[in-house]
Write a structure and sequence with these properties.
Length: 201
C-alpha cells in the first residue's frame, strides 16, 4: 500500500470516528437543570405546608429550616411553638425578634420562605400528565393546562371545568378550551387559586 493510500485510509478512519462521537453525543439526553423556586413577594401570606428558613445572626443553634405544621405553627429552640400561618415573613420576623429578646441581646432575625408547598393546583382527567402542580403568580386555567402536557385523544376539551372550595362550598367554573383559544370567550380563562382542581373529562 502506497503512502497516499495509507494517509487516505487513516483520514477515513478518523472521519468515521468523529462522526460516531458526534452521533453518540446527540443521542445523550440533555442534562436537567433544577429550576429554582420563584421568590415570593413581601405580601405573601405563609400557609401550612410551607417551609421557612429562620436565620438568627451569630446564633447557629437557633437558626434552622422549619416546616409550617398543619396547625399553622413552627417549632424553634428557646421559643417552642410560634404561630406562622396567616402572617407575612416580615410580620413573623418582627414577632420572633421580640420573643428572642428575652434570651438574646439585640437579635437579628431573618425569615425566608424557601418552599411554597401550600400554593398548589390539581389537574386530573384526560391529560398527559395529571397530578399536582405549583401555582405560579397570575396563572390562568389555560396556563395550568399547559403544565399537564396536553390532552389525550379522548378528552372533551369543550367540557373542562375548575372545581374550587369557597366559603365551605364547591363552585364549578366551566372552561371551553376551543372557545378560549379562538378568543371568543376569554372570560372563562380565570385566574387559578390555591387548591383549585382542573378536570378534563
Amino acid at each position: 500500500m502506497t503512502r497516499g493510500r495509507v494517509a487516505l485510509a487513516l483520514a477515513l478512519l478518523l472521519t468515521a470516528g468523529l462522526v460516531s462521537a458526534v452521533a453518540k453525543q446527540k443521542d445523550k439526553p440533555a442534562s436537567k437543570v433544577a429550576q429554582p423556586m420563584q421568590p415570593v413577594g413581601s405580601d405573601y401570606v405563609i400557609s401550612p405546608g410551607d417551609v421557612l428558613e429562620v436565620q438568627v445572626w451569630k446564633e447557629p443553634d437557633v437558626s434552622k429550616a422549619v416546616p409550617v405544621r398543619p396547625d399553622g405553627k413552627i417549632s424553634l429552640p428557646l421559643l417552642d411553638d410560634v404561630q406562622a400561618a396567616g402572617r407575612t415573613s416580615a410580620a413573623l420576623t418582627a414577632d420572633l425578634t421580640e420573643r428572642l429578646k428575652k434570651f438574646i441581646s439585640d437579635p437579628q432575625v431573618t425569615v425566608i420562605v424557601t418552599e411554597v408547598n401550600s400554593q398548589r393546583i390539581y389537574i386530573t382527567g384526560e391529560v398527559t400528565r395529571g397530578g399536582t402542580y405549583p401555582l405560579e403568580p397570575g396563572m390562568t386555567v389555560l396556563q395550568g393546562l399547559s403544565s399537564a402536557g396536553g390532552f389525550t385523544p379522548f378528552a372533551n376539551v369543550k367540557k373542562i371545568y375548575v372545581l374550587r372550595q369557597q366559603n365551605g362550598k364547591q363552585i364549578k367554573y366551566p372552561f371551553n378550551y376551543k372557545d378560549v383559544v379562538k378568543g371568543s370567550d376569554t372570560a372563562q380563562n380565570i385566574l387559578l387559586q390555591p387548591g383549585d382542581t382542573i378536570v378534563v373529562p
